[in-house]
Amino acid sequence: MNNLKGIAASAGIAIARAFTLEHPDYSVTEKQVTDTDAELAKLDAALAQSQAELEAIKARTLQELGEKKAEIFESHLLILNDPELIEPVKSKIASESVNAEYALNETATQFIQMFENMKSAYLQERAADMRDVTKRILKHLLGLNYVSPSEISEEVIVVAEDLTPSDTAQLNRNYVKGFTTNIGGRTSHSAIMARSLEIPAVVGTKNVLSAVQNGDLIIVDGLEGDVIVNPTEAIVEQYRAKQDAYAKQVEEWKKLRSEPTVSKDGIHVELAANIGTPNDVAGVLENGGEAVGLYRTEFLYMGRDKLPSEEIQYVAYKSVLEKMEGKPVVVRTLDIGGDKELPYLDLPKEMNPFLGFRAVRLCLDRQDIFRTQLRALLRASVHGNLRIMFPMIATLGEFREAKALLEEEKAKLISEGIPVSEEIQLGIMVEIPSTAVLADQFAKEVDFFSIGTNDLIQYTMAADRMNERVAYLYQPYNPAILRLVKMVIDAAHREGRWVGMCGEMAGDATAIPILLGLGLDEFSMSATSILPARSQIGKLSRSDMQALAAKALEMGTAEEVVALVESIEAAAE
Ligand code: PEP
Ligand code: MG
């Protein structure tokens, strides 16, 4: 048995066999061969293995997910058997005496590039399919042992160095009971996705991948941040009891689902949810969310080969607005960059991606991308209660420029006879210290603020939110952060604006009493945190929390702030 400590990233307890996920290296080198027949035989064997694998996946997909999803694998089988791809590979091996993987890679790359350069959406999709099939054949040619996360078909806990947002998006909740990674923090995007999928997760363990063998029994305790490898029977029993107790607690919280969020002294606040896809709305409603406080639209742009069209975006935004049935939905415009990459944009690598060309900076430069998104949003606005929010605003100039583009697109749509809501509120994320400090000026021009503490903390403390070696500096309760939050809330309220918070701090049980005392109007968090937060706020009185917040602002360290909050909790018990 081996115990590892990490960061509790998504609540709950999972007990299952480990599935170690390592991204394979598909790179190939050209080699001259003397025995071309042996290379041809190797290719045939790899094709046969790929064929068997695809047929099995297709049959399973058909049974579990239906005909439509299974069609993808039918088209992969067609490519695998397409003589127009395979014959040129064979003749390259024979005529140039090169190794099979090189011949395949060269030939397929030519086809992929040709398809990608065509205008037709159908051919562009074929390029993506061909890339998948090529990887599958290469996997066998290179002897790589790799199962993609989407192919997992038994109950497991995924163990990985890190999970990219697209890996996380592929995880099937029916089989993936939990995950644990070497790197990442509570605000890394894999952790955020885990919470929206409601899968227990522990991240930032530093060494789980080397401590665990594929197939080991492991426990992931997403409440405490523990990973237990090969536990004894007695420990498994203990965790099963903890799992049951947590399930009972969740049942208790569920009773608050249709209740408003009111403090003990009658102050209403709004509890909203952060979502990444339209599918997440079901979880928001199930968990009693009163609004969507942050829709991270970048997931629409990831996991595909090209930018999503206006129509694709319109359908997604409309779907969220309709499902929320008139409750507010804050949609954040594209926030790509940092730890969220879009390979097809082919942006140059940067020394400091979190300080670089990301979010609204990219959108103001690539106006084609930004305008398409704004049009889709404006068109969708008539289907619900839409609020638009720009991320990573550092200057008032950026806000004005982004707003002007929105106004231009709105005027164009109206002149085309397309209806647009007149009620759209326009806000910004406050996640850069310059904007927090200048909040009084911003408050004159925006309808609302949403404080993005995930970034605000990393920029204020100069501590990369992804780097566990400086995680000790990533301090939500540092009085410096609390003072910035207070400045923003006070500045907004002086101008009659509302303030939300959509960073992870908004759902943090230690921060909530202080935020309530500081006067935060809207708390936006992972859907699963809403009911515990509602239960907590119901037991707090705002006037007491005002006094608590005033004390916290005068403390010198984060540790003192935590001790202060714990002392009032102890007194209340
Ligand atoms: C934030 O920075 O607090 C935030 C909510 O945005 P993201 O985590 O997507 O950067
Ligand atoms: Mg951010």
Automatic annotation (TrEMBL):
Annotated family: Belongs to the PEP-utilizing enzyme family.
Coiled coil: 33-60
Protein name in UniProt: Phosphoenolpyruvate-protein phosphotransferase
Annotated Mg(2+) binding sites: E431, D455
Main location: cytoplasm
GO cellular component: cytoplasm
GO BP: any one term: phosphoenolpyruvate-dependent sugar phosphotransferase system
Binding site for phosphoenolpyruvate: R296, R332, N454, D455, R465
Residue stretches making up the PEP-utilising enzyme mobile domain: 153-225
GO-annotated molecular function: kinase activity; metal ion binding; phosphoenolpyruvate-protein phosphotransferase activity
Pfam families referenced in this protein's UniProt entry, alphabetically: PEP-utilisers_N, PEP-utilizers, PEP-utilizers_C
Residue span(s) of domain Phosphotransferase system enzyme I N-terminal: 5-126
Function: General (non sugar-specific) component of the phosphoenolpyruvate-dependent sugar phosphotransferase system (sugar PTS). This major carbohydrate active-transport system catalyzes the phosphorylation of incoming sugar substrates concomitantly with their translocation across the cell membrane. Enzyme I transfers the phosphoryl group from phosphoenolpyruvate (PEP) to the phosphoryl carrier protein (HPr).
Reactions mediated catalytically: L-histidyl-[protein] + phosphoenolpyruvate = N(pros)-phospho-L-histidyl-[protein] + pyruvate
Species this protein is from: Paenibacillus lautus
Lineage of the species this protein comes from: Bacteria, Bacillati, Bacillota, Bacilli, Bacillales
Keyword Ligase: no
Top EC group: transferase
UniProt entry keywords in alphabetical sequence: Coiled coil, Cytoplasm, Kinase, Magnesium, Metal-binding, Phosphotransferase system, Pyruvate, Sugar transport, Transferase, Transport
